[in-house]
Write a structure and sequence with these properties.
single chain, 139 residues, five-stranded mixed β-sheet
Length: 139
């Protein structure tokens, strides 16, 4: 999490990817429901709420064909025990979500409180298909 007005790093943490996006590193991405893959690109954060995983944050995908089905897919940012340092040390990898960006439980509250309600969120991967095809990145 970066404060772009003050050029300050506020939080650096882990994020688990979708279970069908790849093993140790995400390699495949999808906008399709039930794909259990992560989606790349630009999002606008919406409201926070308490759900199945505790505090969570709704996300609206801003890129047609890339992540615009995020709301329909119930892609939200949430905390997960499989997204933290303890899980990583025990298993040599982070666990997987159903496509949501899952963060360590201990970082969830700080992160969501800072970025809820209208912050730009960018999920990046050096995918040539995404980087050359994104209308936001390429105008």
């Amino acid at each position: 999490m970066i404060d772009i007005e003050n050029y300050e790093l506020l939080l650096n943490t882990y994020v688990a990817h979708g279970k069908n996006s790849g093993g140790e590193f995400a390699q495949k991405f999808s906008n399709n429901p039930r794909s259990h893959q992560s989606s790349l690109g630009f999002y606008i954060t919406k409201n926070s709420y308490y759900g199945e995983h505790g505090l969570a944050l709704r996300l609206a995908g801003m890129e047609r064909g890339v992540n615009d089905k995020a709301t329909y897919r119930n892609i939200v940012m949430h905390g997960a025990p499989y997204a933290g340092e303890d899980f990583l040390q025990r298993n040599s990898f982070l666990g997987r979500s159903f496509g949501c960006p899952a963060v360590p439980k201990e970082a969830t509250e700080k992160l969501i409180k800072h970025i809820k309600n209208g912050t730009c969120l960018f999920i990046y991967h050096p995918s040539k298909q995404y980087l050359t095809g994104s209308k936001i990145l390429n105008g």
